Amino acid sequence: MIAPSLLSADFSRLAEEIRDVEKAGCDALHIDVMDGHFVPNLTIGPLVVSAIRKVTKLPLDVHLMIDAPSRYITEFRKAGADWITIHVEAENDVRKTLQEIKKLGAKAGISLRPKTPVETILPYLPDLDVILIMSVEPGFGGQSFMPDTMEKIKVLRPKFQGLISVDGGIGAGNASQALEAGADVLVAGSAVFGKSDRMKAILEFREIFKKF
Description:
The two termini are 12 Å apart. The chain has a single domain (2-209), classed as TIM Barrel, CATH 3.20.20.70. It has 8 helices and 8 strands. Strand 6 (130-134), helix 5 and strand 7 (163-167) form a beta-alpha-beta unit. The protein has helices at 14-24, 46-53, 73-79, 94-103, 150-156, 175-181, 190-193, 198-209; strands at residues 2-4, 29-34, 60-65, 83-87, 107-112, 130-134, 163-167, 185-188. Helix content is 31%, strand content 19%.
């Protein structure tokens, strides 16, 4: 699956940007929510997610890079989030939060920063639908892919039957590394939204997918 990251879209014409990548054949939309505390950046909240929901039927993959995400999961689900991913480093009662996400009817996800050991999420595998491996430090778009993070996917793949997603610096040049490690979903920001021809960009990824 290919999930363009809206962090790299032109927010002055967001509805057009969404329709463009939807027409180009993407599978989901990745939405980065940042609070300026857990990561050093501020982005969007439930109101914008609600606006996005009105212009697309694609699954909305909402990545909460915020402290104590349990406070906001209900709001984001009401806004239209289909997948809600929290950070293992940001929540005290991780299992309870994941179970709450499922009760709300969304897919429950957990994410790992590059320096967080993969072992920290192993106890939660039965509660998860999605694992999001960060291949850059979360907070800002346009960073370089960190290939060492693919080792986490290799550890998780034999143990986990759900979706494994990779986010950070993903492009046509390194997509194969993620897929070879066992990833299912590639989150791509500038590799899609940074191109004038989004259909061509997504087709490039599709050609790479055929090899796996």
